[in-house]
Amino acid sequence: MINYNKVDIKIITLILILMGFIAGCEKDHLESKDSKNPPNEYFASTLDESLIHGEDKYNAIFIENVSFSINQAQYNALDHISFEILPKEGSTIVEPLKGTYTKHYIETKGFLDKESMLISFPIFGLYDAYKNRVRITSMFSNNRKWEKVLQIETKAYEFSETKNTNIFANKQNFVGESYIHIVTDKGPMIMDIEGNIRWAYEDILDLTCRTSALLDKHMYCKQKGTPFDTLLKLGFDGTQEIIPFECGHYSGAAIHHEINLSPNGLLLEIHIKDGTTLKQRGSVLIEVDKTGKLLQSWDMDEIIGSCLTNGELPIETFIRNHASSGKALDWFHMNSSTYDKHDNSILISSRENFVIKVGYSDKQVKWILGDPTKFWHTLAPLNKYALKLTDGNINIGQHSLNFLKDGELLMFNNGENSTVPYFPKEKLGATFSKSMISAYQISNDLKQAKEVIHIELPYFCPNRGFVRKCKAGFLVDYIPQEPDFNSVIAIYNEQGKALLEIINHKFFATRAFPFPNEIVF
After folding, report:
1. What is the CA radius of gyration of the chain?
2. Distance from CA of residue 104 to its chain's centroid?
3. C-alpha–C-alpha distance, residues 123 and 136, integer Å
4. How many C-beta neighbours within 10 Å does residue 390 have?
5. Cα–Cα nearest to 82, from 120, 139, 142, 132
6. Whole-number Å distance between alpha carbons of 405 and 403
């Protein structure tokens, strides 16, 4: 046991008092130091009080400009600004839609007025006909932030309707994307999975073709009234830019069906035109970069025509266009294309015939996958490229070629036979009773294909349809022959169960892609 005398106790007491005094002095020193640079230095009252709705220069329902005052010190410390549109009350499966503007983007776009020190930026993705709750966050250096929730009330959008949604999913267990980029006869749109339109170019677009693609956070599409060989580049903030694209030796081009991503830009499926005269219908694919520069082209009249002539068959046996018949007949009907990074090739869907793979650079035919009861299969120069189906259903009248992560070829398998008038009637192929989602595992070495995913849909969709992989399974978009729906957007899990179905009555949707719930600019 330790014994303390009175002197020891006094010394210990004195030491404790001194330690407390020193600690108190240190605390006062830190508080004094912080008082010269308080935590709320970048959150001046002007920043809190001046958040306002800006003048909406595009008069757009789904876009609103917001502004606030900021001083130079605050701006120097600014890292980024973000917005978050909170879901409607009662929504349990839609995540907030978010957008983030980095300081570099803010400066590039000129969001800061240096004279007034007013910083303005667009909020896009609002609900129509609703008092939207939007959280604005400004992040500064040292993880300082300023945050405020405001209300933005919007007008009604004429193509919105409350009855267009039928959700089969158990909302509590649904896991998947909250937003969908849909291609419609009213232009590109963003829809959430509860059927609410969240972005569209109302009163701006009247598209001649129902196609668009998302590239570098912009929509690329085609607008009526512009020259044939031009693209329209749309920003989510309401900006627009006309981009002419090159056609090479072709006199002119008109985009149809799909615009798809390529290794270096965009794949455009085109009709060849000479003024208003149609020379080739739906048999040419070109690749352009995002400035419109021509990079590659694949002319199926030439590629397949060479196969026929090398096999000592006249071209007009299978191909009839302006050059051979005086009329551009729809013998090929290209409706989809995609790039295969595994072997540097291009896959093209001919609705009337097959799926064909050709080299990206050498443009040589690699293989053909299609219904062997169709006319093409009777032609020896084409038959020699045919893959043999070892299991499952063959592809007929297919759309929307794309790849799954393990390389399987995914497509919307429509199931309607050929309609080319000069093909032999007994060689127009088979027809399914229902359309389906199909994916094929392909062996290039063995020249074989096997259907590895087969999901039969409840409707028959003879000539339109689209499918993409999504988090919950497969996102599909199609227009049934019966019943008389304008279009159906649905999500099926990998076991073929319908998790979600959105039935549209006010517009046609022909393609649907998963869309992120957050975009960083």
Report:
1. 30
2. 24
3. 10
4. 12
5. 139
6. 7
Q: Using CB atoms within 10 Å of the CB of residue 100, give its burial: 0 to 12 exposed, 13 to 18 middle, 19+ buried.
A: middle
176-203 average pLDDT score: 88
Contact partners, residue 248, CB within 8 Å, separation at least 6: 286, 294, 297
Q: Are 313 and 245 in contact, with CB atoms under 8 Å apart?
A: no
- Taking 60 as the threshold, does the pLDDT of residue 246 lie above it? yes
| C-beta separation of 239 from 216 below 8 A | no
Residue (of 479, 480, 466, 478) closest to 514 by Cα position: 466
**What is d(CA 185, CA 209) in angstroms, rounded to the nearest whole number?**
8
With tokens 């649907």, the residue in question is 512
Average pLDDT over residues 311-320: 93
pLDDT at 27: 32
What token pair was written down for 194? 């509860």
**What's the CA gap between 345 and 357, in Å, rounded?**
7
The CA distance from 283 to 271, in Å, is: 7
Instruction: Find out whether 350 and 356 touch, Cβ atoms under 8 Å.
Output: yes
**Beta-carbon contacts of residue 79 (< 8 Å; ≥ 6 apart):** 102, 103, 139, 140, 141
Burial class from Cβ neighbours inside 10 Å (0-12, 13-18, 19+) for residue 337 reads: buried
The Cα–Cα gap between 166 and 488 comes to 10
Between CA 180 and CA 489 the distance in angstroms is 9
Residue with tokens 């007034």: 116
Amino acid at 343: D
Strand spans (E) along 193-300: 197-200, 212-215, 218-221, 230-235, 240-244, 253-261, 266-274, 277-288, 294-299
* Paired residues of 136 in beta bridges: 83, 148
Q: How far is CA 64 from CA 84, 160, 202, 381, 402, in A?
A: 13, 19, 14, 59, 35
Q: How far apart are CA 310 and CA 245, in angstroms?
A: 33
Q: Is residue 184's pLDDT more than 70?
A: yes
Q: Give the C-alpha distances (Å, rounded to integers) separating 59 from 64, 118, 220, 238, 285.
A: 9, 21, 21, 9, 37
What pLDDT, in 10s, does the model give residues 252-295?
A: 888 889 999 998 999 999 988 877 777 888 999 999 999 999 99
Cα→Cα distances 240→58, 231, 232, 235, 276, Å: 11, 10, 7, 6, 26
Residue 168, CA distances (Å) to 260, 478, 502 in order: 31, 18, 10
Q: In this structure, which amino acid lies at residue 21? A: F
The pLDDT confidence band at residue 92, using thresholds 50, 70 and 90, is confident
* Residues linked to residue 172 through DSSP beta bridges, in sequence order: none
User: Binning pLDDT at 50, 70 and 90, where does residue 76 land?
Assistant: very high
Q: Which amino acid is at 316?
A: E
415-462 pLDDT tens trace: 999 999 999 999 999 999 999 999 999 998 899 999 999 999 999 999
- Of 37-41, 465-469, 477-481, where does mean pLDDT reach its minimum? 37-41
Cβ atoms of 66 and 81 within 8 Å: the answer is no
Query: pTM of the prediction?
Result: 0.85
**Rounded to an integer, what distance in angstroms lies between the CA atom of residue 163 and that of residue 178?**
19
